[in-house]
Amino acid sequence: MQCGLLSVSMAFNFQQDSAVNNVAMDNVAGSEGPEQTVSDATQRVLDVAERLFMQRGYAAITLRDIAQALDMKQASLYYHFPGGKEQLFVTVVQRVLERYKAGIHQALATHRLDLRQQLMAIALWFAQQPPMNLLGLMHADIPALSQASQAELLDSVFVALFAPIRNTFAAAQQIGTIRTVDPDMITGAFLAIMDGISYRQAHSDEISPEVMAQEMISVLLDGLHPAT
Amino acid sequence: MQCGLLSVSMAFNFQQDSAVNNVAMDNVAGSEGPEQTVSDATQRVLDVAERLFMQRGYAAITLRDIAQALDMKQASLYYHFPGGKEQLFVTVVQRVLERYKAGIHQALATHRLDLRQQLMAIALWFAQQPPMNLLGLMHADIPALSQASQAELLDSVFVALFAPIRNTFAAAQQIGTIRTVDPDMITGAFLAIMDGISYRQAHSDEISPEVMAQEMISVLLDGLHPAT
DNA sequence: ATTATCTATAGATCTATAGATAATGC
DNA sequence: ATTATCTATAGATCTATAGATAATGC
Q1: What is the CA radius of gyration of chain A?
Q2: pTM, 2 dp
Q3: pLDDT tens digits for A46-55?
Q4: Residue A70: exposed, middle, or buried by beta-carbon count in 10 A (0-12, 13-18, 19+)?
Q5: CA angle at residue A8 from A6 to A13, to 5 degrees?
Q6: Set of chain A residues whose Cβ sits within 8 Å of the Cβ of B6
Q7: Quick one: average pLDDT of A79-90?
Q8: Which strand D bases fall within 7 angstroms of a protein CB?
């Protein structure tokens, strides 16, 4: 299946989202008591691994890099992630995607029925996050993983990022708020721009997140032509 | 210096472009007789290396991968590129950027004075190219190189991609064709979308390059709101 | 007993160098 | 003599495993 600028090549089913979803949710904040919670030490590993992996990608970062940043030995990482580098990476990306999913959901829920405000809130969210380099993730990182991990992460990307935004555009089209353009394509373009916003914000502070979010959404909705 | 969604951290000078430019040009098609031309064998190496590097990035591709795809031994690559992996990668990227520079220049020149047609032609060009994953290049690949190579490639990215597009938007703003939005930001967003178009076209053929280019430029110029 | 680290190391792989070989052109 | 490859290998590095160690909790 092709999804806008991102090709998520799995047999996705829109109505299965919530089911897939609940499985992925249970590690975030234990709604039950005896949830398998993540220790502080493991948390620290994830934090550092996330920073490095998101900065340079899966292939460029070695376990030694991560261990060194944590002031520990490379072999010690296997205590927290017996599955090694791949398991660590998959866990990191899942955690990032959960955060994005929550951020997007919150943005959509807070400004319900106002597309411009919804998109603004999403853009502001992206502007405040460290860059995830989504295209690089899809393009370079995920293909380096095992078939099972690939499928798992592609599914999560779809559920966390693609589906909610696509649904928002599709709904806005149905009620006539925006004109009819292939929603997959809009979503892909939107995510590409959002990814760029994160990147720009991380490497510069000439423009505030608020202004940048507002300008980009204005271009997307109103276009670049002068308001006559 | 910050440039739209891409941070090109060098002291660029717009007026120096052509000077920097001529140096990089001389390897494309010998305007003089005794130009150091590239042999067929070296050409083949560059073609294969380009495909692999652009597909998965600098860190993920080994010299062995490239040699294997060429049906030769890894050590033989050092005959063509004594500087090893880094020199090969830099040469590949320079060649790609020269191609893009020429394609963009052609698009701009053919439709001079018509911004929409110019952007359409650029979008069509991107849609027909294999994806270059520009954000990944800036974000993951270039930082892995030596300081000298970093500077060289950042300069080339600026000269080949960023400057011509930025100048086009800036000129259109001056004559009032488009409204005033930070040109660096528009350029960054435009390149992010173009990169996405390449990616999408490479992974799907549901939408023709022409339609995709037209729709994306229409969104950029006219916006998503319904034409009343 | 559990948690979280360490040392040591096997085995694989990667870059790069040295020097041989074979074909072609002068 | 030049071009384009090869074999062999040094040296570095990377992932992963085995087993020891030390601190804390029961």
Answers
A1: 19
A2: 0.87
A3: 999 999 999 9
A4: middle
A5: 125
A6: 199-200
A7: 96
A8: 3-9, 13-19
